[in-house]
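Budget justification aside, the reviewers requested a transparent look at the raw inputs and outputs of the sequence design task funded under Objective 1. We therefore reproduce one unedited record. The lines immediately below are the structure tokens for a 390-residue chain.
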């Protein structure tokens, strides 16, 4: 059976897979043809990933054969966003006495699981990232997977040595994994917040900050205060959860977080989707009304929002006009140079144009600067300066 490129699918395999998923065999073949169900590559080519949400299966789900059957690491469940806290919380968490409130950290979502005997880090899209996998093996207490092979850690990779979302705001030297969820393989069923925190403490894992359980009746006012304080230190916001994890969670972010996202989006305006930009601007309007801001506070919000849009855009246009190329400069820290080479190949396969600088020794590891070129914004800006119409 060919795997690279998905040109052919063994029909015995397709029938077996269809039976496991509860699909018609014709549907499985269609998923392969459309590449909604695709093989990973290289040493992980035996792992399938869902490139699109199909029925009850989230995008980014990884599926593989094990002991004559199949096992799945479910993708990240969608977390809907509260645009206003009241009456949203009252409606979404109806029947609960309290809600659990935890910090939403600004990093890169990753799942870590034991897959056919190996500890692997899976991205939101279902790829196996070699860099994140190495960092997970270095940073996490792997005995957890000996004791709970059926569980998956859902977390955020946070810190400056993060090639996806580098952040200096958390006072982390390199990167750390902050766990926000533990779920079962195959079902995706989550542990309660209390049970999850108990297990994470036992194994010494970093976990997202908890603000405790708050009475639903007073939650809107208390969460607004928490988010205001988080915004002052440029942290992102909160996730509000049913303590038993039966009802789906809801997220709510600070104005500083919206503006930080917009600064990056408008620096690379032709790569960022319009929906991504518009939604963050709309959030600002709702929050300004919800928080009943004074005219002075509202003008401050307007200035902050406007600057987060125009300042990076002006910088990008000016840079291209002066003959410079636009790029994201990030860094990685690796134990072996093979990991860096594997990660470079990984980015190329994803279509990312990246330039890796020579490695610098950093204790018993290597620090490598990476420049990720944003070709679309570069080309579009250059074309406009050469007379092309919008």
């Amino acid at each position: 059976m060919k795997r690279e490129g998905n040109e052919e699918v063994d029909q015995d395999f397709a029938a077996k897979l269809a039976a496991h998923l509860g699909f018609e065999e014709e549907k499985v073949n269609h998923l392969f043809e459309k590449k909604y169900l695709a093989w990973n590559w290289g040493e992980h080519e035996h792992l399938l990933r869902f490139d699109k949400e199909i029925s009850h299966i989230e995008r980014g789900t990884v599926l593989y054969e094990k002991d004559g059957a199949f096992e799945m690491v479910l993708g990240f469940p969608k977390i809907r966003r509260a645009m206003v806290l009241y009456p949203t919380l009252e409606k979404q968490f109806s029947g609960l006495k309290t809600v659990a409130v935890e910090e939403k950290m600004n990093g890169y979502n990753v799942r870590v699981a034991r897959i056919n005997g190996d500890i692997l880090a899976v991205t939101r899209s279902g790829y196996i990232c070699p860099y994140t996998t190495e960092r997970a093996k270095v940073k996490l207490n792997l005995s957890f997977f000996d004791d709970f092979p059926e569980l998956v850690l859902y977390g955020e990779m946070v810190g400056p040595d993060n090639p996806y979302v580098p952040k200096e705001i958390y006072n982390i030297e390199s990167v750390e994994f902050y766990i926000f969820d533990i779920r079962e393989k195959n079902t995706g069923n989550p542990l309660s917040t209390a049970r999850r925190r108990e297990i994470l403490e036992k194994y010494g894992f970093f976990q997202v900050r908890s603000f405790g359980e708050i009475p639903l009746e007073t939650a809107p006012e208390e969460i607004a205060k928490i988010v205001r304080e988080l915004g002052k230190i440029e942290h992102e916001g909160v996730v509000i959860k049913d303590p038993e994890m039966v009802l789906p969670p809801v997220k709510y972010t600070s104005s500083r977080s919206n503006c930080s996202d917009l600064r990056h989006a408008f620096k690379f305006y032709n790569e960022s989707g319009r929906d991504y930009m518009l939604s963050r601007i709309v959030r600002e309007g709702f929050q300004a009304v919800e928080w009943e801001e004074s005219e002075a506070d509202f003008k401050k919000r307007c200035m902050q929002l406007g600057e987060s849009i125009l300042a990076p855009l002006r910088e990008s246009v000016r840079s291209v006009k002066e003959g410079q190329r636009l790029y994201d400069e990030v860094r990685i820290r690796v134990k072996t140079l093979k990991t860096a080479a594997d990660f470079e190949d990984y980015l190329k396969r994803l279509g990312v144009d990246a330039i890796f600088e020579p490695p610098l020794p950093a204790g018993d590891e290597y620090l490598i600067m990476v420049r990720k070129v944003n070709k679309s914004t570069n080309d579009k800006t250059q074309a406009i300066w050469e007379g092309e119409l919008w």
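The CA atoms of residues 288 and 298 lie 7 Å apart. The longest helix spans residues 295-321. Computational costs for records of this kind are itemized in the attached budget.
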